[in-house]
Design goal:
With 201 residues, the chain is mainly α. The chain has 8 helices and no strands. The protein folds into 2 domains: 1-66, Arc Repressor Mutant, subunit A (Orthogonal Bundle), CATH 1.10.10; 78-201, Tetracycline Repressor, domain 2, CATH 1.10.357. The chain has helices spanning 5-34, 41-48, 52-59, 62-77, 88-104, 106-113, 118-171, 178-197.
Length: 201
């Protein structure tokens, strides 16, 4: 094994990370700017200053790149900084952060949600948000519902919230109003929380 192997490998890893990040940024920018996920691979690669071959090597195809770019965007700009929702103020702050994120990147998400990747995006985002709702439901009702009940209710709430966010992003007024939408989410959350925490007769 060459003596410089340990120097080359990290350098290569850094290059791969940089090119991946550049491709995902380019995908978000171009898809949002053009209002379509059908951006030519050559355009994305060119904007990222890499070859088409690098894009295919790292992501397989354009659809996989665009989906991964969406998940990376949610992780970096939303989930990593999401406030603790264990208190009412924290819960509202979390919902407002979510609304602001989707409003800020509306054109990008709308292009995905109205294109061929809509199902894959919804499934992937559900995978990101379901654990958060599972923890919230378990805190409120874990003893009463049991493991399967917690899982079912968390999936139900995640799916319902996703449908509401999707409709808002796709059909909402221009520009989107994150404060107004957060108020809507909080009203629904209050009603649902009251119903599910009410002691059965």
């Amino acid at each position: 094994m060459p003596d410089d192997w340990t120097i080359e490998a990290p350098a290569k890893d850094r290059r791969v990370r940089r090119s991946r990040a550049a491709l995902m940024r380019a995908a978000v920018e171009l898809v949002g700017a053009r209002d379509t996920a059908a951006v030519p691979v050559s355009d994305i690669a060119g904007a990222a200053d890499v070859s088409r071959q690098v894009l295919y090597q790292q992501f397989g195809d354009r659809d996989a790149l665009v989906l991964e770019a969406a998940l990376d965007l949610v992780r970096r700009e939303l989930l990593d900084d999401l406030p603790d929702d264990a208190t009412p103020d924290g819960e509202r702050a979390s919902m407002l952060a979510l609304a602001r994120h989707f409003a800020a990147h509306r054109r990008f998400y709308r292009a995905l949600l109205t294109g061929s990747s809509a199902f894959a995006l919804n499934k992937a985002l559900t995978g990101l948000f379901l654990p958060l709702n599972r923890l919230h439901v378990a805190r409120l009702l874990g003893r009463r519902l049991g493991t399967q009940g917690v899982e079912d209710l968390a999936a139900f709430l995640t799916g319902g919230a996703a449908a509401l966010v999707n409709t808002w992003v796709i059909e909402g007024p221009e520009p989107l109003d994150p404060e107004e939408f957060t108020g809507r989410l909080m009203r629904i959350r209050t009603v649902v929380s009251t119903m599910i925490t009410k002691e059965p007769r």
